[in-house]
Amino acid sequence: MIFNKKQLLLHVLRARSIARRYLFTNGFDGSLTMLGMVTGFYVAEMKDLSVAISACLGATVALFISGLSSAYLSEKAEREKELRELEQALLVNLKESDYGHASRYLPILVALVNGLAPLVLSLVILLPLFFAEQLRSLPSSPFLNSIFVALICIFSLGVFIGKISKQFWLWSGLRTLITAIVTVIIILLFGLSI
What we know:
By secondary structure, this protein is mainly alpha-helical. It has helices at about 1-10, 15-45, 50-90, 100-135, 140-165, 170-194.
């Protein structure tokens, strides 16, 4: 019963739409960052997979911490401001009300979504590197495999955002995919010019 009540309050506070926005935004950032890193390692013809994995994991952890802390701090500030304004308008203290409790839960929920989205997607993109390091012999470059996985993740995020906005899912997915492909092309051009 309490859980349902909290769910309702979080819905009232637009928690779902905010969480979805953070899921896409930071998930896209994380995927594009990993795509850029593995493409860079591919262009540089990196042979030592453990170095590449360590660098990518470092960036993944940084994305997770950054997403977690930035979303929590910004959403907490916004919710506190809204709560204060509502208290001033109603001339009552709402800190122990359901609205006050929901205002405290929302920043935590949003921070978790914002931190976990790039973490999970980055780890999925790095899976081919982990497998390659364990198996040692794969028919194709682990970096090319990671690039391919990253493109699938970014296309899927586009499909996700297309379904939310009730746009044609394929066109929405292709738009994000084109952004990712342009990123890869620019990195390849920089790599060839060095």
